[in-house]
Design goal:
The chain is largely without helices or strands. Helices cover 0% and strands 0% of the residues.
Amino acid sequence: SDGDGDGYGDNQWGNNGDAFPNDSTQWSDNDGDGYGDNLNGTTPDSCPTIAGTSFWDLFGCADYDGDGWSDIGDAFAQDASQWSDVDGDGYGDNPQGNNADAFVNDPTQWSDVDGDGYGDNPQGNNADAFINDVTQWADSDGDGYGDNPQGNSPDLCPNSPTSAIVDSNG
C-alpha cells in the first residue's frame, strides 16, 4: 500500500519503501536522521549525507552542543546556552546564556555590571563613568561626581570646568 500517494510503499524496509509513509513530500532519508532527502519537501535535510539533529537554522546537520542550531550557523558551537552574536564582539545574544552580551547591537560594549544601561568599557559607545553605581553613569565635567542629581554623590556644580578645583560636592 501507499497511504500518502507518493509512489513509494508504506513498508519502509520493502522494495521501493517509504521512510515517511505519512508525508507525500518525503520518501527517503539516506543518513537516517529523520529529515527527508527531497529538498522541495517538508523539513528537507540540509546535510543529507551526514546525520544531524539541528532544527532551528538548518534541518539535519551536525549540532555538537545540542542546542538545535547547526554547527555551521552556530556562533558558539560548543556552548548550548549561546548560538548567536549579532554584533560580532564574542559575547552571546541570549541574556540567560553564558557570557551574555548586555548590548547585543553594540560591538564596543558587552557588560553592564551595575545594570544601569550604560556599558563598562570606557572606550566604547554609551560608556558608564560609574560602573559600580546604578544611580550614576555620567560625569560631564570630569570631577568624579555624577550628573544625576538624585543619584549617589551628585555633582552640585555640574558645569564646573575640568581644570577647576572642586570641593567635596563637586
